Amino acid sequence: MSRTHLGLPTFPQAARLSTRDEQLRANLRHATSTIRTKRATATSELSDWPQLRAAGAAIKDHTLHHLDHYLEQLETAVTTAGGTVHWAIDADDANRIITDLIHATGESEVVKVKSMATQETGLNEALTQAGITAYETDLAELIVQLDNDRPSHILVPAIHKNRTQIRDIFHTRMGAWGRPAPDDLTDTPADLAEAARLHLREKFLRTKVAISGANFMIAETGTMVVLESEGNGRMCLTLPDTLITLVGIEKTIPTWRDLEVFLQTLPRSSTAERMNPYTTTWTGTTLGDGPQTFHLVLLDNGRTDTLADTTGRQALRCIRCSACLNVCPVYERAGGHAYGTPYPGPIGAILTPQLHGTTTPLNASLPYASTLCGACYDVCPVAINIPEVLVHLRERITQGGPTTTNGTKTTIKPAKRHTTERTTMRTAAWTLNHPAAWTATQRLTTRTRALHPRRLPGKTARAWTATRDLPPVPARTFRDWWQHRDADAKDTPQ
Amino acid sequence: MRVALFVTCVNDVLYPDTGRAVVTLLERLGVDVDFPTGQSCCGQPQYNTGYRHQTEPLVHRYATVFTDYDYIVTPSGSCAAMVRDNYPKIAQRATAEGRESGLSRAAAAAVPKTYELTEFLVDVLGVTDVGAYFPHTVTYHPSCHGLRTLGLGDRPHRLLQAVRGITLRELPAADECCGFGGTFAIKNPDVSTAMGHDKITHALTTGADILCGADNSCLMHLHGLITRQHTPLHTVHLAEILASTKEHPYTPATKAGNLR
Amino acid sequence: MTTTSRDEILRRVRQALGDQPGTTPDPTTIPRTYQTTHATRTPEQRTHLLADNLTDYRAHVHHTDTTALPTTIARLLTDHGTRSAVIPPGVPTDWLSATTGIHIHHDHGELTAHQLDTIDTVITGCALAIAETGTIVLDTSPDQGRRILTLVPDHHICIINTPTQVVDSLPQALPHLDPTHPLTWISGPSATSDIELDRVEGVHGPRTLDVILIHDNRD
Hints:
heterotrimer; B: 260 residues; alpha/beta; Rossmann fold; 4-stranded parallel β-sheet; 13 helices; 50% helix; 11% strand; C: 219 residues; 4-stranded mixed β-sheet; 5 helices; 12 strands; L-lactate dehydrogenase complex protein LldG (chain C); FTHF_cligase-like_sf (chain C); NagB/RpiA_transferase-like (chain C); LUD_dom (chain C); Cys_rich_dom (chain B)
């Protein structure tokens, strides 16, 4: 719970700038439209996609409904297989456990596989403070780290950069971190990948400690599963002596067999491939092969609070494929940084306010960062009804109500910022439920129509009329016409 | 067959021509359509903004007003989706909170007889050629709730294809949202405007004169952007195209004196 | 301290699930109406699909039989310009009977990552291959060796016996695999989609993947 962002702009404030960044808009338009088309092709190859989607949702729901049982089963299996299991209640807890584990090895540098959980806890910053250097090894994470930037996408954290920008970052920044980029580096993706290969290889070969996340944890066997493309994951999971894996508790699935669903749906939903180039599964430690010390750190950090919400808990089904980001028209225009958290896009808009509460202005703005168009729900491989949860969270903000914070049941008050809106909605709802008042309101609107300007003063109205004309108000309402249509029949041919 | 028109609050006040077009169209097809005047709003603005409790009286009102009808027809995909997708959820939530008070029955009564206009035409009346005439070049934007929540599919296209004189143009990226989203347009004006501009750009590339939709709230947003930009494009509700005939061609005259 | 976090997390989970009946979980109740395979195929069709999907993801697929296998391997090593290669202990020595002029390392668990980084090629068998996804699975059996062997050298030659080692689909593959062994699932050479969300081959894992399909029952 330690990563609150009091100082960050709200979503609309950030989007005001990002929607005007033509380069960013072009980069995102290009990348998301490429992947959208490919995803549609990859999923259409499977005639049983709806059944796989339903099974994925059912497996996740089943696990969540018995999460205590499966976590204990997982702990036993991992321990039996030679691993050590740690439990972290929040980000600080996780960072402290991992820092201590690294200190115990005597090492001062680690290689990292891309991990959303470590971004969520701010692990790299915590390690820096403890005198430990963490090297990101995923290509996009490397780009972000070299540029001292923030990730803007779950799968492709540097999606906001195009190839030329990446070339420039490699040129100017790689030398400060290790092997510099070649002087004649071009911006072709193959050359950029080659530069990353050379830069990171020395780090893979010498580093003794690795940190990873996991896509799935199998309770019955204690098996960890990591899907990746580049081979940096295999390097980190195979070469070092010590492996520390930080995983959210919701990544548990019951059985080995359950992989038959997710290994079909996850690659197709994320990189739009039949299968990602590399998947590694490991169970505890194996004598003579791979890290001989394995620590699993199980992370709560707001997940149990989310689990307590019967509508919102479906967000915990998420397998971090990022298909919802790639189809989201709001994400495409605002960019990932506007969401201000490691989880951007539609899933972030329902996950962040649940994991960390709706008290900051930024988090309270996230559930409104959607037109409720439903494209995210359509593509979600575990059928998370994101629009439904968005509306539910809007209600939590405007109306308050029962919720769970840090494991304690509480009732939150309606947000102060919505006082005017609340009054308007109450008045409107009352009027709409009282026909005489509704008719009178309509009459007033039509009779004063000549007075209605095309642009209005006031903050709310300006939000509409700064770019849009108001619709002209016709002389008569429909009901007025209907009630007089017989009398009007002579005048009106229709 | 007792058929009621649910015109929707937005159409009632701002787009009465759409309501009149539905009446004209249905009567031409031999349907005796009624307009119970106790109707107001489906509650979508309240519900989607987070005011579920304020929506509950409107669920009751909707069910009560339309009790005596077999079919409720509405020229709005998002209002039909509000009733069919959200009324049951509102009832469930109220029940879970111990405030059921007849909401489940109200929702159960309202949901199965609520039809979006193109569903009613194609599925209930079984027609795709409604005898319309509309000699213009048209591109169709399928609004999100009709497209995804209701699954209208190709019904609007089949109806438009049967219109005489029409030239239909396929809208690029048709399934992408226009950026209206109710209060989204106010709370996130920059993203909303960016999405709307992209939609209009796509519509212009088709060479169409008319951007047609089945939801006037989306068209209100797009029309607002179009007139501000002085773009040569008109927005027209699908019902008004289907109501148009050689004898009584579409005319935007009553919409507003200063338009077009 | 971690005991406290453990107990607190489990307490929070149980409190959060207050609406759920506290019954013993039964995963067999999960609806699995999806298909176990997406087509009925003859063994030849299955192998053909595997070859197509491997090729689609830029693996180089070669067809041979047991007799000609050593020649095929020798040719691939020459074509790649291999000067040194490594084989795990369970690779049959006759696989390399036609190979000359190349230094062969026999791994018995002692080669370091730095040493492997100077070796051009690794030659292995596999546990099985999945036709529908174009995937090869390695399970560290003696003919595949330690995971590091197939990771650090830049060129991997993988031999698959058809049709016996080829299954149709993921649901058919999982029962044959033992999760207590570390598994590596390979679908084409190393690749990335991190630049503009478009796939390019060749990052950290072997950048060249040669797959040899052995067909012994061909007429």
